[in-house]
Design brief:
Radius of gyration of chain A: 22 Å
Oligomer: heterodimer
Strand order of the largest sheet of chain B: 7-6-8-9-10
Strand content of chain A: 15-25%
CATH class of the largest domain in chain A: Mainly Alpha
CATH architecture of the largest domain in chain A: Orthogonal Bundle
CATH architecture of the largest domain in chain B: 3-Layer(aba) Sandwich
Helix content of chain A: 25-40%
Largest sheet of chain A: 5 strands, mixed
Strand content of chain B: 5-15%
CATH topology of the largest domain in chain A: Cytochrome-c3 Hydrogenase, chain B
CATH class of the largest domain in chain B: Alpha Beta
Structural class of chain A: alpha+beta
């Protein structure tokens, strides 16, 4: 057997995961991706005297997660990025974190600009005492008398996280965009090793602060799988409502910001305010507009009262009507549609090749939604159809968000009518030793993948977080090709990716 | 066009009346300024101290809370067997010095206004360059919200600007990652004198959940001098607005 098949949100003993020879392992990934699987996660995990590589492949159609590993005899492994472009960032991450060289990688650059986790093993043979400067690396360049380069960031206009964007331009036309991140790197994955401890849940809540519910939920599913803790139906409903409120706040905010980027102020103003209404609904449940303290291993930290249910229903109906009015103005305004359509196009073929997730993938016509493909928690009981559009442009990415806004409002209203009785929290025991667990959550940006590996004592030996942005930043770079550089803000906002979730 | 006008009429004027009128109601479960009652502490009890994820609590004879480290989570409240810690609904948290954030149970001074010279310069027009230096995008988002029509910072003459050269000061979020330190320093240097710095959120004040990590510097004060500290994880927009308005002398000084 070349791999083990896992259910989303389940744990198995590590010994069950097949260990393949390195050449078989990369061939397994290559073959899998050529058969419509995609890489959900691919990472290194240190053992006593070496590093193992693990890959989780997602087969969306069969709802199967396939996992395998390999032990490397030395500090190098075979790169598959030439044939499998979606592997390129994962391979660079493995190189940076563990000093393992992916031989044959077409563009081997650091991801986050930090030192290797293994002293004395550096993929670029950088001296241990030389500083590692963020963004100081090779960039793809295009030669020619009329070619010029535009460099933006890390501090760039607007209230936005830092990143560096390098454009190769011919006049106003962008021939190529390269994105260098890592400025937000705060050492989350390194700090998780040896846990869980009293900080662990707070790392999850701040891995990407605008996705507090999504990341914390992915973590809690892992802990519950590793400890065999059941979660009550009531807690699952509260979690589902929180996840959809997070989606609503961000999608509505994004639709407003997209309107702002094409200077259509009515929708921009209305949605800017309405986003806050959804955040305030989350705050009613747990005191925090971002859902801090709500999702906890074993259930949720706060119950809902009958009064709160009625209040939320009333507020949601009203906000839903106001959002409908605000967003439908977009599709009725020719100047907006003209700016959205055919801008920042990513083809279906490109999206498949680079493994896009979330609304960006669905905007290319790809039916890919964890709630639909790998349902967990409340989504096992309530079917959420995947919303798609077909042009892969800014308009499609906006329209998918709009479809999802309507679905999320409907989902929450249905849940509010039937909140099950029961406890909201079960105590969590010790985690299973020498085990591995995988969980996927459909956050508002797309698939959040967490993988936990425990040691002989049942503490975390490795914890891998893959934010949807990790898959999707490359999509933004492709969307810019052939566009006017002045459309960068619009394209950027249509993806609205996370810097901190990528940098960790 | 007609639809847009109808929508405008329907959505109405939605800017909050604060500070002329009372602030908008906060949720019942909102966690504002923590209240400490050390008289309830059992001898030798360390339950809250051991539970705190950022070591914000300590006991050197009396229970002490560092609001600059506090994530406003419920871990201490849940751990305390005696109800010595509770959260109030008081959203006013900003201070002018790091020391003022150390709470020992007594009331503490809130942020006082800038001196007369700076007030004359910035009191009615303050342009801020926002720098995210490792924040999780929650503080950034709450800073951003103040620019929306619901809060409308512009009515106070406060504006976020694109270039540090157009700014009167910096508003910093995040613990100052090693990878952002140089960029932050350069941005600060590019702001013309005189200038002010506002640190927003637990990360920018102390490092927050990332305190002690090698990859960051435990807050903005590691790199630039800070004039206003606004605690929270993230602070509520009302807390940020209250702090900035106090700094500008638009809200009278008070005690918490």
């Amino acid at each position: 057997m070349s791999h083990h098949i896992l259910r989303n949100g389940s744990a198995v003993p590590l010994a069950i995961v097949p260990s393949l020879a390195p050449s078989e392992f990369v061939e397994w990934i290559r073959r899998g991706v050529s058969k419509t699987h995609r890489i959900a996660s691919y990472f290194g995990a240190p053992t006593k005297n070496a590093v193992e590589l693990y890959a989780v492949l997602a087969d969306d159609d069969a709802s199967e997660l396939k996992i395998a590993r390999t032990a490397l005899p030395d500090d190098s492994f075979e790169s598959i990025s030439e044939a499998v472009p979606q592997a390129q960032l994962f391979e660079r991450e493995i190189a940076e974190q563990f000093g393992l060289r992916p031989e044959g990688h077409p563009w081997l650059k650091p991801v986050r600009f930090h030192r290797s986790y293994r002293g004395g093993h550096d993929a670029w043979n950088r001296p241990a005492d030389a500083p590692i400067l963020p963004g100081v690396t090779d960039f793809f360049t295009i030669a020619g008398d009329e070619i010029h380069e535009v460099a933006v960031g890390p501090v760039h206009a607007g209230v936005i996280e830092p990143g560096h964007f390098r454009f190769q331009c011919h006049g106003e036309d962008v021939l190529h965009l390269e994105i260098a991140l890592g400025y937000q790197h705060r050492g989350v994955e390194r700090a998780l090793i040896g846990g869980p401890n009293k900080r662990t849940i707070h790392y999850m809540e701040t891995a990407a602060g605008d996705t507090t519910i999504g990341h914390t939920l992915a973590y809690c599913h892992l802990v519950e799988a590793l400890t065999g803790t059941p979660v009550s139906a009531r807690a699952q409903v509260i979690r589902g409502i929180a996840l959809e409120l997070e989606r609503l706040a961000n999608h509505v905010g994004d639709l407003g910001a997209l309107a702002g980027d094409v200077a259509y102020l009515p929708t921009s103003s209305f949605c800017g305010r309405l986003r806050g209404d959804f955040l305030n609904m989350t705050a009613e449940s747990c005191g925090s507009r971002f859902g801090r303290g709500l999702v906890r291993p074993g259930g949720v930290g706060f119950d809902v009262t009958i009064g709160q249910i009625d209040d939320l229903r009333r507020r949601l109906v009203r906000a839903g009507e106001e959002v409908t009015e605000a967003v439908e103005l977009l599709w009725d305004t020719p100047t907006v549609v003209e700016r959205f359509e055919n801008t920042g196009r990513v083809t279906r073929e490109e999206a498949d090749a680079i493994g896009l997730v979330g609304p960006a993938a669905r905007a290319c016509g790809i039916l890919r939604d964890v709630r639909h493909d790998f349902p967990l928690g409340i989504y096992r009981f309530v079917h959420v159809p995947a919303a798609t559009a077909h042009h892969g442009d800014v308009n499609s990415r906006a329209f998918v968000r709009w479809l999802e806004v309507q679905q999320s409002v409907q989902f929450i209203l249905e849940q509010l009518d039937a909140v099950p009785a029961g406890e909201i929290h079960n105590d969590v025991g010790a985690m299973a030793a020498s085990s591995i667990a995988v969980s996927l959550i459909e956050g508002w940006r797309g698939e959040i993948c967490h993988v936990a590996i425990t040691d002989e004592e049942g503490t975390l030996a490795r914890y891998k977080i893959t934010d949807p942005s990790f898959h999707n930043w490359f999509g933004l770079a492709l969307a810019l090709r052939g566009e006017q550089i002045s459309d960068f803000p619009l394209c950027n906002k249509s993806f609205n990716l996370s810097y901190c979730g990528h940098d960790l | 066009m007609l639809k847009a006008l109808l929508a405008r009429a329907h959505q109405g004027q939605r800017t909050i009346a604060y500070p002329a009128a009372a602030p908008p109601p906060l949720p019942e479960r909102f966690r504002g300024a923590p209240l400490l009652d050390p008289s309830k502490c059992a001898d030798g009890c360390r339950a809250c101290i051991d539970a705190c994820p950022t070591d914000a609590l300590s006991n050197d004879g009396t229970l002490t809370l560092d609001l600059g480290r506090c994530l406003f989570c419920s871990d201490c409240v849940t751990a305390c067997p005696d109800g010595a810690l509770t959260y109030s609904q008081d959203y006013r948290l900003a201070t002018r010095t790091r020391e003022d954030l150390i709470v020992r149970g007594e009331s503490l001074p809130l942020a006082r206004a800038l001196d007369e010279k700076l007030l004359r310069l910035f009191g009615r027009s303050l342009k801020l360059r926002v720098v995210s230096a490792g924040d999780c995008n929650a503080c950034s988002a709450e800073v951003n919200v103040l620019g929306t029509i619901g809060w409308d910072l512009g009515r106070f003459g406060i504006q976020y600007v694109a270039s540090p050269r157009h700014a009167d000061g910096l508003l910093i979020t995040g613990p100052v990652t090693e990878n952002m330190r140089l960029a932050l320093q350069k941005t600060y240097d590019a702001v013309p004198e005189p200038k002010i710095v506002i640190a927003v959120g637990a990360c920018a004040i102390s490092g927050g959940p990332y305190i002690g990590h090698d990859e960051q510097h435990n807050g903005a004060a590691s790199t630039v001098p800070v004039d206003l500290f606004i605690p929270g994880c993230p602070p509520h927009p009302l807390t940020i607005l209250d702090g900035v308005l106090r700094l500008l002398g638009r809200i009278e000084n008070g005690e918490r």
